[in-house]
SPOR domain-containing protein (Streptomyces anulatus), 66 residues
Amino acid sequence: MRGSDTMSDSGAVLPWQVIRQDDGGNRYRVGRYATQAEAQKVADGLDDRHRHQVYRVERVGQGTRP
């Protein structure tokens, strides 16, 4: 296991995260997920409801840094 992957309370690795980025470039983690598909489903649902925000799926530890 890589050092950047963390475990949930149940011990499952959650290597995928959904990030919300606002118009000012600020980034906030929305949640962490076991699979990329699960994270993408959440991000797509949020995109549909919140048109003024950008939601991205990233592997933990590989996000874009300003």
Notes: The first helix runs from residue 36 to 49. The chain has one helix and three strands. The mean pLDDT is 81.
